[in-house]
Amino acid sequence: MSVKLEDIAKATGFSVPTVSRVLARSSYPVNAVTRQIILEAARIMGYKPNLSARSLRTDRSNTIGIIADDLLSPFTPRIVRGIQDYLNQYDYLSLIVNSDWDADIEQEAINTLVSRPVDGIIFVEYSHRTFSRVLEQSKKPHVFVHRLFGTPIKNSVVPDDEYGASLAVRHLIGLGHKRIAYINGPENWHNAKKRFTGYQAELAAYQLEFDSAIVQPGDWEFEGGYQAAKNLLSLDQPPTAIFSANDLMALGAIYAIQDAGLSVPKDIAVVGYDNRDFTKIFRPRITTVIMPVYEMGWTAAELLLKKIVEDQEDLDEIKIRGQIQIRESCGADKSLITKDELGSATVVRRILLNKQPES
Amino acid sequence: MSVKLEDIAKATGFSVPTVSRVLARSSYPVNAVTRQIILEAARIMGYKPNLSARSLRTDRSNTIGIIADDLLSPFTPRIVRGIQDYLNQYDYLSLIVNSDWDADIEQEAINTLVSRPVDGIIFVEYSHRTFSRVLEQSKKPHVFVHRLFGTPIKNSVVPDDEYGASLAVRHLIGLGHKRIAYINGPENWHNAKKRFTGYQAELAAYQLEFDSAIVQPGDWEFEGGYQAAKNLLSLDQPPTAIFSANDLMALGAIYAIQDAGLSVPKDIAVVGYDNRDFTKIFRPRITTVIMPVYEMGWTAAELLLKKIVEDQEDLDEIKIRGQIQIRESCGADKSLITKDELGSATVVRRILLNKQPES
DNA sequence: GTGAAAGCGCTAACAT
DNA sequence: ATGTTAGCGCTTTCAC
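The joint structure predicted for all components is written out below.
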């Protein structure tokens, strides 16, 4: 059926191990001429290694498992893409399982992946981090990316939310705002806590007074942002700018401001957080802090591969910093607006323009 | 290290094959008592089959490969989720590779996957469908989901765009509109052609005149929709409703209408296509035809598994119908507005409300 | 630098 | 119904 080492050995007159040493890129010394002959034969015959056999023998599969809470979560595909692109450089592939925010399914996913030929596991946006005896016993390296709850743990990659919040606030201060409101996320999310901390720290750094009257609780959702902004507008001294802990609430806030007959950014500036897709198409286009999700995925993959290949020891939580994406909702001068990276829609268009798809 | 069949054989006194017959759920007859003993031992000892070994022996891996143009494309994650959820029922997992809209990378991806232990391949939103000798030789079953270009081919799953367009137009007609404009997509996309056909057919079905003056070309993008609507508004007899071939152009159209001082849906009704995420949060919330992407992925997985397990013969192109999602931009009575399925954000919230995440 | 032998863990074929 | 034997394709000793 398919070409195997034995076929190439027969065709070239060398033994199977020698052929293996060449084709598996072993560091074992092989005569240069021999190598050439074998390489050529393999190319002509179309040799593809049987990775099951190799994996059985070496206990390495060049495959890692990803357990994501849900591939459809807003950040997950981009995190996964970051992981995949890093892995791709080293001929690793990824197997993806969803845990659907459920501790039991998560355990099941771990069990599934552990018995699979995977060299390690990345947990993406996992909410539970339930202890798994199976996982520990398997000794498979595993790392975490974008943990949503809990205290910092080793081998995890997270966004630097405090830094991100400081960027947003600093930008607004630079624009001349002195009364900057904050719409928070739910308190049990440490993302929200850190962003709040960053907000406060940055105000302090510029000697601006912290006023709890212009800090509103939020729920991450559109409605929460809308209500929060409404509350802020009804204050005796309403803020001139609002920093929202996420984009969805920022969107709600913008609608609330517009519903009150005011304009964003002319009357009130708004900055969001996350750089969700809709911030680019909504008007005014929303200034936001970029969640460095791609880089987080990339870094998590890097860490995992180091653990697999180089036996990298456990590392403390790694924080990744995002940039601020300046658009229209903050009222910055147009010349300051940062260029968006290419979106996939643009790539599609490039195909259409430059290449003729075959019919 | 890890428990294998031999260990269980020793522990129970039975032979390795007998243990295998029980634990691999073979249909081979085994004494009920024996089965119980072995099952119990396996449970206690924590047996996990080594799938590399099994795969080497059986030439089956319970893994399929997915080649997607880009995991970050708007539809891809949902298609993939549909695939995964179907596979999950049969203990199959999926390996995902991106081809980045590039024919060479696509070939590379095919080569990679073919040498991997995968039982079949699903091409998601592939644009090239270049012939691959390697793929043909491998004899691995493969199916296509959401092909973007080209004529219908066997073993592919696509949306029924003509039907979807007819739903949109029928809905607008039901709302009393008689002059319904159409904003098209690029002509070399058969999605666009089919939607146009559906538009025309539905007008005809209701004896409404087709007027090419209110058909505008488009580019799938925001700008194209904006410009198209502007053109339509400048007509002597502007339409009372606009059906846009996708949501992004519908959004552009809505902005153009609003910029002209008119209101959606009061002055002009707008219906989009795709049910992209932003249509739910934008105001007015956009009525749109649902791309049945999840179901398409599900169906593609079903087809592939049938080919793998039951040697299902080649099937003609399978068309999947989507529903219309009635929201605000069409001006339908509020009681007609269809409920959105749960989005992942809602699921997150459920966690927050019902469960206490451990700290 | 190359080859012979062994074996990774499993299941299919053949025996009993 | 259970056990014996063989071998999937590969890489790793260990000889030479």
